[in-house]
Design a protein that fits this description.
By secondary structure, the protein is an alpha+beta fold. It is built from 13 helices and four strands. Helix 4 packs across helix 5, helix 5 packs parallel to helix 7 and helix 9 packs across helix 11. It is globular. The relative contact order is 0.13.
Amino acid sequence: ALAVRFPYLSNLYFCLDRDFENEHRAVLAGRLAYRNRRDDGVRTGLVYKLRRNTHRIEKGLISRPRRDVFARDYIEETAEAFAQLTAAGDCQADEGAQALTQWAGDVLTQYFAAVAEGLDPGADRARAVFERAVAGIEYAAAERAPYRRDLSPLRISIDDMLALAQRRRSVRWYDQRPVPREVLDRAIEVAAYSPSACNRQPFELRVYDDPALCAELGKIPMGTRGFNHQFPVFIVIVGKLVAYPYNRDRHVIYIDASLAAMALEFALEVQGVATCSINWPDIASRERMMAKAIGLSPDERVIMCMSAGYPDPDGLVPYSQKKSLDEVRSYNQR
């Protein structure tokens, strides 16, 4: 009771309890990896810093009214990150890095068009760094900056969405038809559009469709006994704490990855592929087993797992009664 009343005492309560040890280690490993350089010389954190700051600048560009000068606290570090990444040898060859720098370059181009010279020394220094960076590479500003979104009516309605949500069930029995990778990839494309804090997208989907691997990995989470032997597809959703330099962001991987996971399940369902969300317990032995099985680095944490496949037409699914609208929703409650 005292530990609840006085939060600092909770540190003493848990100092001899190792339940949070894995998270503590992963957070520290992520912060270290954020600062360190990869084998190719690129500092890992630069990628996530540029991704985050570019999105912050986008939010400044769309502000109403827009200030004459904004992003003062981070415009210089953003320009420096852009310059370092565009100068890196792997940037032009790596499709993901190239897409990131093209987007950042477009947003920075719009930023320096919006913020006049002479208004802020930091912005002027950043402008000079950016102009030197784009002068040395083949770069042409495109349309990867804030835009007016399409407001034309969608072909799906709220009734369609409700029907999809009601139809999607946690399916545990599958027929053994292979799921085409094109089907999986289309669904993952949808999931990748899920919202993410500062657009960092700190997760990856590790997809396994080899029957032996699916059976091996399907045994590691708890709660799969009796049906894990027949997963056509097994997906491990991995959060990457390397995306964050601060402890305060340690839970963002769970939020962002979960948003993507639900989108993935809906996108598979509309293609006729059923899924089952598989809980991931925070148990050290299970963490070690999965890390060894799929080669996780110390900063990477399993968020959840998912099985997928074409449903066995004779397989049953639980009814799983859901809470009513009044139970899950309130307005203006204080």
